[in-house]
Amino acid sequence: MTILERRDAGAIAYLRMNAPERLNALSEEMLDALQATLDDLKADRSIRVVVLSGAGKAFCAGHDLKQMQAGRQAEDGGRAYFQDLFDRCARMMQSIRALPQPVIAQVHGIATAAGCQLVATCDLAVAAEGTRFGVNGVNIGLFCSTPMVALSRNITPKKAFEMLTTGGFVEAAEAERLGLINRVAPVDGLDDATRALAETLAAKLGAAVSIGKEAFYKQALMPLDEAYAYTGQVMAENMLLKDTAEGIAAFIEKRPPDWQQ
User: Fold this and answer.
1) Residue spans of alpha helices (H) in the chain
2) Rounded Cα–Cα distance for residues 128 and 107 (Å)
3) Is the separation of the CB atoms in 231 and 211 below 8 Å?
4) pLDDT of the residue at 29
5) Which of 143, 137, 141, 134 is nearest to 169 (CA)?
């Protein structure tokens, strides 16, 4: 069985975590598969959008606790193992942000701990009605410190801290209100809703979206004056693209653009 399935449909790559018996936990194998696929996608200019989903009854339940417990058997009590595990997970999460293509999380069932982190890390997210989100490691004595990084950059600090310290769940409707996800879809309409969003993005000029994604995250970390200076340079470079000139000409001439990229 392939632990991470990839299916391309035109300019959209559909990735599905396929370990339903473990609720698609971010095991060592899953992390390796995700990292390798993200590395491949980074160089694949035929793909404009990536959709990430999970097989079975849940999107992702976080790290594989059985593997983590086994890691304790090392002579150092697991210190080196745990540090390597969380470093690898952090690299994978950052690879999603560094990917030129937007990544949409298609979420159902539950997204907990590092699974919630995965949703928060993706650029966009569509969730089925009834989906629950949580960073509830605190319930077993493990504060979700790395999931906190992505979560606290998605929602308000007080709500993030409440989720982290109470270990409580947030329902899909509240997750949308908080900004953790973009929209909620009926369970039987989740595929269609996600595909519609992906197709909308895929229809745009890929080079422009890639430029915009990188700039979006960089400018958010800058003071206001630096952000404007930086994004002004980005827009100037964007304007120099031949396909951008074609897009503007097509708008003026009231016709579809004939983009080459």
Assistant:
1) 28-42, 65-71, 79-98, 114-121, 145-151, 157-166, 172-178, 190-202, 206-219, 224-239, 242-252
2) 6
3) no
4) 97
5) 134
Of 105, 35, 154, 82, which Cα lies nearest the Cα of 135? Answer: 154
Distance CA 22, CA 29 (A): 12
Domains defined along the chain, listed by start: 4-202 (3.90.226.10), 206-252 (1.10.12.10)
Residues of 178-207 as b/e, b for ≥16 C-beta within 10 angstroms? bebbbebbeeeebbebbbebbeebbebbbb
The residues that bridge with 125 in the sheet, in sequence order, are 105
| Inter-residue long-range contacts of 183-192, CB under 8 Å, 24+ positions, other chains counted | 183/126, 183/127, 184/126, 184/127, 184/128, 184/129, 184/131, 185/126, 185/127, 185/128, 185/129, 186/128, 186/129, 187/108, 187/128, 187/129, 187/130, 190/106, 190/108, 190/126, 190/127, 190/128, 191/106
> Model confidence at 76, in pLDDT bands (50, 70, 90)?
confident
Percent of the chain with pLDDT over 70: 100
DSSP state of 19: -
